Structure formats: C-alpha cells, structure tokens
Amino acid sequence: MSTAASELTNGSNNSLRHVEKPELSATTSGLHEIGEEDENDVGVEFEDEDENLKQQVWEKGPALLPTFNVGAYANESENVKKLIQLGVDLSRWEGRYGTIPLLYKSDFDTTMKPIIDLLIDAGVPDADLSRILTKNPFILNEDVRNLEKRLEYLRLKKFSPKSVLDIIARNPYWLSFSVPRIDRRLGFFQTYFNLTGDQVRALASVGSSGPQLITYHLGRVKDVTFTIKEEMGFTSKEIVKLLLTRPRIWKETTVSLRRRFDYLHNEEKFSHADVVRCPMLLLTRERRLRERIGFLREVGRAQFSPKQPNYISSEMLVTGTDAEFATDVAKVGVIEYNNYLKTL
C-alpha cells in the first residue's frame, strides 16, 4: 500500500481516512502514487464531459430543435416555471448539450425534485442552490443515490459541514464527479505536494479556487508546479504555502506567471520570501505591476524594505483601485497618476 494510502487508513486527525463502506469502495487504495492516476482522469476537466453527459440525456427522448430560447417556452413548461421560481438563470443553459430534453422531457417531481430536496436537506442555502443549478444543469440528471454517496464521502473524509457546503457551492461541478475520481484527485494533490490530511482538506475548501482546483486539469497543475519550482526556484515548502494561500495561481498560464516573476524578482529584486508573503503578486497583471512600481519610483516612494521609513508593502501594491493607490499609497492626486499612465 502506498504511503499516502496508508495515511488515509489510520485514525489520525491529520489524515484523510479512506472510505471503507461497501457502497463507496469502488476505489482500491484510496490514493494513487504520482503518475498512477487513471489514464482517462488525467487532463480531463468536467466541462469536457459534456459530450458524454449529452448522450445520456438525449437518450431520454426525441430531440427538440437544437437552437432554442428558454423564454419562449416559459408559459408552456412546468419545469421551466419551477426552475425560474428557484432562481435558476436558464439563459445560461441555452446552447449547452443535453439541456433541452432535460427541461422538456424530464418529469420535475421524479427527476429533479429529489435532487433539489437532497441539496436543501444538506443545508445548501437558496442563493447557492440557484447558482449550482445555473452553472451545472447536468446535476439534475444524476442518480440521487450517487449524489448521496458523494456527500457522504466528504463527511467520511472528515470535511466539516461548512466545508462540504462551501465545496459544492464554490464548485458546482464537484458533485458530478464520482467518488473514485474525487478520491484519486485528492490523493494526487496529497502525494504530489506531500500534504497532510488537514492540508488537503484546507486546499479543497479555501476560497473558490481551492474546490475548483481539485477538479481542474491535472496536467496543467503539473506544468505550473514545474514552472514555479524549476524555473522560478521556489522550494517545496514555499510551494505548499503558495498552494494553500492562493490556489488560483495554479489556474494561471505559465507564460503569465513567468513574466510577472521575472519582472518582480530579476528587475525589481523582490525575493522568493516576498512573493510567498504576498502571493497576490503572482496574480497581478505584469502591466499593473510595472505601472504602480514605476510610478512609485517617479514620485520617490518606491521603498519596499520593511526596515526603512515610508515602507510600501506588497499588499499595498496589488490591492485597491487606481484612485485608492494614488491617494493612499503614492500620496498624490488621482489626476497626477492618470497623467503618468498616459505617458506609458
């Protein structure tokens, strides 16, 4: 058994316990070692699964016209009426494979209502419920028993009730992943980044990017990690800090990350520690960084050492509007800053 899988099976609060219930035992080891991910799992985002889901839904009945406007059927379809009452933005469904028969060939009470009730019983607030259904209509085509297993899996993995709600609200596609796939993906992050069980739970729950990263393109996660470690020179511990603080970094393009880091580190002499303390530096457009740092040099306020007077922190560089930056950080009028930007 792999080290990661062993950690799952012990009773420590610092590990993700492997699911032992028979109905959830489709996965064998719980976590795969690096490189052992399912061939069909690596590099597959859920959005790419629309083709597979399309076939499942369209087989329910004869196809309607592929191009449609939901509003035109609002008075004729009970499904449309009830979903609109729930706050679902059905205009977001237009043009997506499989949504037409889902709306007009499915029976609301037998197909949709059990799933909606399950989410409500799980504690999903009304606003989050409408958002989940708006972004992932295909959840209404799931077997409610599978959804129950996927929610139970998170509880068995010691995710708190709040974390479970945050995960499914911030990543509406999460519940469309089977238990084995989610298990493999959590195992991938645990093994690849050498995370503890608590750190995996934290990653899967942090902000909106954490839950989304778990179901993201694993090949891209590896590419970004290579860039951060091998090309930028961050240590493994520093990478974990970046990952747990700002997982959205792993959804950026490697080109953008390299350009921002090259400017900050090689031109402006920001250290690796500076970036780890303020990961938003890697999420801020290179142009904005150049504009703001360049202007601070123009007005004699480019002081980035905490040991010196008039210290400008990294957070002050990357937060706030241009007006707030001009008045609060650069200590000048907005017009003066705008005039500077026009010269670039």
TrEMBL record:
What Gene3D superfamilies does this protein's entry cite?
A: Transcription termination factor 3, mitochondrial
* Keyword Transit peptide appears in the UniProt entry: yes
Q: Where is this region: Disordered?
A: 1-37
The record's listing under InterPro entries reads: MTERF, MTERF_sf
- State the superkingdom: Eukaryota
Keywords, A to Z, come to: Transit peptide
Q: Where is the composition biased (Polar residues)?
A: 1-16
Family listed? Belongs to the mTERF family.
This protein's name: mTERF domain-containing protein 1, mitochondrial
Organism whose genome encodes this protein: Orchesella dallaii
